[in-house]
Amino acid sequence: MTPLLQVKKLSASYGAITVLHGIDLDVKRGSVTALLGANGAGKTSALRAICGLLTRKGSMELDGRPLTGMGTEDIARLGISHVPDGRGTFTHLSVEDNLRLGGIFQKDKKQLASDIERMYEYFPILKARRLQQAGLLSGGEQQMLAVGRALMSHPRLLLLDEPSFGLAPKVVAEIFAIFRQLNEKEGLSILLVEQNAALALDIAQEAYLIETGRIVFSGCAASVQNNEDIRRAYLGG
Ligand code: ATP
Description:
This is Branched-chain amino acid transport system ATP-binding protein. This protein is an alpha/beta fold.
Protein backbone atom coordinates (compact mmCIF):
# COMPACT_ATOMS: atom_id res chain seq x y z
CA MET A 1 0.00 0.00 0.00
CA THR A 2 1.35 3.46 -0.81
CA PRO A 3 2.27 5.43 2.28
CA LEU A 4 0.16 8.41 3.29
CA LEU A 5 3.15 10.71 2.94
CA GLN A 6 5.95 9.87 0.57
CA VAL A 7 8.96 12.16 0.49
CA LYS A 8 11.72 11.53 -2.03
CA LYS A 9 15.06 13.25 -2.41
CA LEU A 10 13.89 16.26 -0.45
CA SER A 11 16.41 19.06 -0.17
CA ALA A 12 15.76 22.36 1.54
CA SER A 13 17.66 25.51 2.23
CA TYR A 14 17.66 28.77 4.11
CA GLY A 15 18.81 31.17 1.39
CA ALA A 16 22.12 29.83 0.11
CA ILE A 17 22.54 27.36 2.99
CA THR A 18 21.27 23.85 2.20
CA VAL A 19 20.25 22.03 5.38
CA LEU A 20 18.46 18.94 3.98
CA HIS A 21 20.35 16.86 1.45
CA GLY A 22 17.94 14.65 -0.45
CA ILE A 23 16.05 12.83 2.30
CA ASP A 24 13.61 9.97 1.67
CA LEU A 25 10.90 9.51 4.27
CA ASP A 26 7.53 7.77 4.36
CA VAL A 27 4.70 8.01 6.84
CA LYS A 28 2.50 4.95 6.64
CA ARG A 29 -1.24 5.38 6.94
CA GLY A 30 -2.31 5.31 10.58
CA SER A 31 1.24 5.26 11.92
CA VAL A 32 3.25 7.37 14.30
CA THR A 33 6.63 7.93 12.68
CA ALA A 34 9.42 9.46 14.74
CA LEU A 35 12.13 11.65 13.24
CA LEU A 36 15.05 11.68 15.64
CA GLY A 37 18.45 13.28 15.69
CA ALA A 38 20.77 15.62 17.54
CA ASN A 39 20.41 19.39 17.79
CA GLY A 40 20.78 21.04 14.42
CA ALA A 41 20.42 17.76 12.48
CA GLY A 42 17.55 19.11 10.39
CA LYS A 43 14.42 17.78 12.07
CA THR A 44 12.59 21.10 12.30
CA SER A 45 13.69 21.96 8.79
CA ALA A 46 12.26 18.68 7.49
CA LEU A 47 8.85 19.46 8.98
CA ARG A 48 9.01 23.03 7.68
CA ALA A 49 9.89 21.78 4.21
CA ILE A 50 7.01 19.27 4.21
CA CYS A 51 4.45 21.91 5.08
CA GLY A 52 5.81 24.36 2.54
CA LEU A 53 7.57 26.84 4.82
CA LEU A 54 11.02 26.31 3.31
CA THR A 55 12.40 26.51 -0.19
CA ARG A 56 12.66 22.90 -1.27
CA LYS A 57 13.46 20.48 -4.08
CA GLY A 58 12.49 16.86 -4.53
CA SER A 59 9.14 15.18 -4.54
CA MET A 60 6.45 14.89 -1.89
CA GLU A 61 3.09 13.18 -2.20
CA LEU A 62 0.17 12.96 0.19
CA ASP A 63 -1.94 9.95 -0.65
CA GLY A 64 -0.49 9.97 -4.15
CA ARG A 65 -1.16 13.68 -4.71
CA PRO A 66 1.94 15.72 -5.48
CA LEU A 67 2.68 18.54 -3.04
CA THR A 68 5.64 19.80 -5.00
CA GLY A 69 5.39 23.49 -5.72
CA MET A 70 2.40 23.98 -3.40
CA GLY A 71 2.28 26.74 -0.79
CA THR A 72 1.51 26.27 2.89
CA GLU A 73 -2.19 26.99 2.56
CA ASP A 74 -2.79 24.41 -0.16
CA ILE A 75 -0.77 21.85 1.74
CA ALA A 76 -2.83 22.54 4.86
CA ARG A 77 -6.05 22.22 2.86
CA LEU A 78 -4.93 18.84 1.58
CA GLY A 79 -4.70 17.65 5.17
CA ILE A 80 -1.29 18.32 6.69
CA SER A 81 -1.37 20.22 9.96
CA HIS A 82 1.78 21.50 11.66
CA VAL A 83 2.36 22.15 15.36
CA PRO A 84 5.59 24.13 15.21
CA ASP A 85 8.31 24.21 17.84
CA GLY A 86 7.60 26.99 20.28
CA ARG A 87 3.87 26.15 19.83
CA GLY A 88 2.96 29.15 17.64
CA THR A 89 -0.28 30.11 19.36
CA PHE A 90 -1.58 33.66 19.01
CA THR A 91 -0.75 34.86 22.49
CA HIS A 92 -2.94 37.98 22.45
CA LEU A 93 -6.04 36.06 21.33
CA SER A 94 -8.30 33.99 23.56
CA VAL A 95 -8.09 30.23 23.70
CA GLU A 96 -11.34 29.91 21.79
CA ASP A 97 -10.29 32.37 19.09
CA ASN A 98 -7.10 30.38 18.60
CA LEU A 99 -9.19 27.25 18.07
CA ARG A 100 -11.50 29.12 15.73
CA LEU A 101 -8.50 30.18 13.65
CA GLY A 102 -7.49 26.54 13.38
CA GLY A 103 -10.88 25.90 11.78
CA ILE A 104 -10.55 28.80 9.36
CA PHE A 105 -11.45 26.64 6.32
CA GLN A 106 -14.67 25.49 7.99
CA LYS A 107 -17.53 27.62 6.70
CA ASP A 108 -20.31 25.70 8.46
CA LYS A 109 -20.75 27.46 11.83
CA LYS A 110 -22.44 24.50 13.50
CA GLN A 111 -19.63 22.20 12.48
CA LEU A 112 -17.08 24.75 13.70
CA ALA A 113 -18.80 24.93 17.10
CA SER A 114 -18.92 21.16 17.37
CA ASP A 115 -15.23 20.90 16.39
CA ILE A 116 -14.37 23.35 19.18
CA GLU A 117 -16.40 21.26 21.65
CA ARG A 118 -14.52 18.18 20.50
CA MET A 119 -11.23 19.91 21.34
CA TYR A 120 -12.60 20.72 24.78
CA GLU A 121 -13.34 17.03 25.25
CA TYR A 122 -9.73 16.21 24.48
CA PHE A 123 -8.42 19.05 26.60
CA PRO A 124 -10.99 19.97 29.30
CA ILE A 125 -8.61 22.53 30.80
CA LEU A 126 -8.94 24.57 27.60
CA LYS A 127 -12.68 24.81 28.16
CA ALA A 128 -12.09 26.20 31.62
CA ARG A 129 -9.67 28.73 30.07
CA ARG A 130 -11.65 29.41 26.91
CA LEU A 131 -11.89 33.18 27.36
CA GLN A 132 -8.35 33.66 28.64
CA GLN A 133 -5.57 35.07 26.50
CA ALA A 134 -3.46 32.22 25.16
CA GLY A 135 -0.31 33.99 26.34
CA LEU A 136 -1.43 33.62 29.96
CA LEU A 137 -1.67 29.82 29.78
CA SER A 138 0.96 27.53 31.26
CA GLY A 139 3.42 25.86 28.88
CA GLY A 140 1.46 22.62 28.94
CA GLU A 141 -1.84 24.36 28.28
CA GLN A 142 -0.26 26.27 25.39
CA GLN A 143 0.95 23.00 23.90
CA MET A 144 -2.55 21.55 24.25
CA LEU A 145 -3.95 24.62 22.55
CA ALA A 146 -1.41 24.36 19.72
CA VAL A 147 -2.38 20.72 19.17
CA GLY A 148 -6.09 21.53 19.44
CA ARG A 149 -5.73 24.31 16.91
CA ALA A 150 -3.92 21.97 14.52
CA LEU A 151 -6.63 19.32 14.91
CA MET A 152 -9.42 21.78 14.13
CA SER A 153 -8.78 21.34 10.40
CA HIS A 154 -9.36 17.54 10.61
CA PRO A 155 -5.87 16.76 9.33
CA ARG A 156 -4.90 13.43 7.83
CA LEU A 157 -1.32 13.97 8.95
CA LEU A 158 -0.19 15.84 12.04
CA LEU A 159 3.38 17.16 12.15
CA LEU A 160 4.54 17.63 15.74
CA ASP A 161 7.75 19.50 16.49
CA GLU A 162 9.17 18.85 19.96
CA PRO A 163 5.82 18.71 21.76
CA SER A 164 7.50 17.79 25.07
CA PHE A 165 9.91 20.71 25.05
CA GLY A 166 10.08 22.55 28.38
CA LEU A 167 7.17 20.68 29.95
CA ALA A 168 6.98 18.84 33.27
CA PRO A 169 6.94 15.01 32.95
CA LYS A 170 3.36 14.76 34.21
CA VAL A 171 2.13 17.17 31.54
CA VAL A 172 4.18 15.41 28.86
CA ALA A 173 2.58 12.09 29.84
CA GLU A 174 -0.87 13.65 29.60
CA ILE A 175 -0.23 15.12 26.15
CA PHE A 176 1.37 11.95 24.79
CA ALA A 177 -1.61 9.93 26.03
CA ILE A 178 -3.78 12.12 23.80
CA PHE A 179 -1.44 11.55 20.82
CA ARG A 180 -1.70 7.81 21.43
CA GLN A 181 -5.49 8.04 21.59
CA LEU A 182 -5.65 10.09 18.38
CA ASN A 183 -3.47 7.53 16.64
CA GLU A 184 -4.93 4.31 18.00
CA LYS A 185 -8.61 5.22 18.24
CA GLU A 186 -8.97 7.70 15.39
CA GLY A 187 -6.26 6.45 13.06
CA LEU A 188 -4.56 9.83 12.82
CA SER A 189 -1.12 9.60 11.21
CA ILE A 190 1.61 11.52 13.00
CA LEU A 191 5.14 12.56 12.09
CA LEU A 192 6.81 13.29 15.41
CA VAL A 193 10.04 15.21 15.96
CA GLU A 194 11.38 14.77 19.48
CA GLN A 195 14.63 15.35 21.34
CA ASN A 196 13.37 12.86 23.91
CA ALA A 197 13.98 9.75 21.84
CA ALA A 198 12.75 7.28 24.45
CA LEU A 199 9.44 9.08 24.66
CA ALA A 200 9.07 9.20 20.88
CA LEU A 201 10.01 5.54 20.38
CA ASP A 202 7.50 4.52 22.99
CA ILE A 203 4.63 5.82 20.89
CA ALA A 204 6.07 5.40 17.36
CA GLN A 205 5.94 2.34 15.15
CA GLU A 206 8.51 3.63 12.64
CA ALA A 207 11.59 5.77 13.11
CA TYR A 208 14.12 7.73 11.09
CA LEU A 209 17.43 9.10 12.26
CA ILE A 210 18.73 12.26 10.68
CA GLU A 211 22.26 13.59 10.87
CA THR A 212 23.44 16.84 9.28
CA GLY A 213 20.52 16.83 6.86
CA ARG A 214 20.80 13.18 5.80
CA ILE A 215 18.79 10.14 6.87
CA VAL A 216 21.28 7.69 8.36
CA PHE A 217 18.88 5.00 9.54
CA SER A 218 15.26 4.03 9.11
CA GLY A 219 13.31 1.10 10.44
CA CYS A 220 10.72 0.02 12.92
CA ALA A 221 10.86 1.79 16.28
CA ALA A 222 11.86 -1.42 18.05
CA SER A 223 14.90 -1.80 15.81
CA VAL A 224 16.17 1.58 17.01
CA GLN A 225 15.36 0.81 20.64
CA ASN A 226 17.20 -2.50 20.46
CA ASN A 227 20.27 -1.32 18.59
CA GLU A 228 23.06 -0.48 21.03
CA ASP A 229 25.22 1.24 18.39
CA ILE A 230 22.44 3.50 17.20
CA ARG A 231 21.46 4.34 20.75
CA ARG A 232 24.99 5.24 21.71
CA ALA A 233 25.80 7.13 18.52
CA TYR A 234 22.63 9.09 17.98
CA LEU A 235 20.45 8.98 21.00
CA GLY A 236 22.93 9.51 23.78
CA GLY A 237 22.16 6.33 25.67
P1 ATP B 1 16.96 21.59 17.00
O1 ATP B 1 16.31 20.51 17.77
O2 ATP B 1 18.17 22.15 17.66
O3 ATP B 1 16.02 22.63 16.48
P2 ATP B 1 16.88 20.39 14.38
O4 ATP B 1 17.30 18.98 14.14
O5 ATP B 1 15.44 20.68 14.41
O6 ATP B 1 17.57 20.87 15.70
P3 ATP B 1 17.07 22.46 12.42
O7 ATP B 1 16.49 23.49 13.34
O8 ATP B 1 16.25 21.96 11.32
O9 ATP B 1 17.60 21.24 13.29
O10 ATP B 1 18.43 23.02 11.85
C1 ATP B 1 19.15 22.38 10.79
C2 ATP B 1 20.26 23.31 10.33
O11 ATP B 1 19.66 24.48 9.77
C3 ATP B 1 21.17 23.78 11.45
O12 ATP B 1 22.49 23.81 10.95
C4 ATP B 1 20.69 25.16 11.74
O13 ATP B 1 21.74 25.98 12.18
C5 ATP B 1 20.19 25.64 10.38
N1 ATP B 1 19.11 26.63 10.48
C6 ATP B 1 17.97 26.50 11.19
N2 ATP B 1 17.19 27.59 11.05
C7 ATP B 1 17.88 28.43 10.23
C8 ATP B 1 17.61 29.73 9.70
N3 ATP B 1 16.48 30.38 9.97
N4 ATP B 1 18.55 30.28 8.89
C9 ATP B 1 19.70 29.61 8.60
N5 ATP B 1 20.01 28.40 9.05
C10 ATP B 1 19.11 27.81 9.86
